[in-house]
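Proteins fold reproducibly. Look at a sample protein:
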Amino acid sequence: MGGTRKLILEITGFSEGDLPFRHLEVPITAGKLSKMECTVLVEKIAVKIKYWSTRSLSYANRLALVNTVVIGVYKFWASIFMLPKEVTQDITRLCRDYI
């Protein structure tokens, strides 16, 4: 098996890596994501909401931002992984506090 792997790596020019690694800012791992690995997601959403908080937006505009941007980012991650319950609760709290 080792010889085949080495041959494939030589032919393709790829290098063998280790898990976890990131692709499109999403951690790729063989196991279930921990809350710690999802801190990037929560921080990314928190930064967006903090920036929006500096703007004078109506309730409808705040709701539209949360529904399109935050829920879109969340759905992207959730379509790949089962997110820990604590992460979902943190995101919900951030959105609720902003709206």
Notes: The CA atoms of residues 34 and 74 lie 16 Å apart.
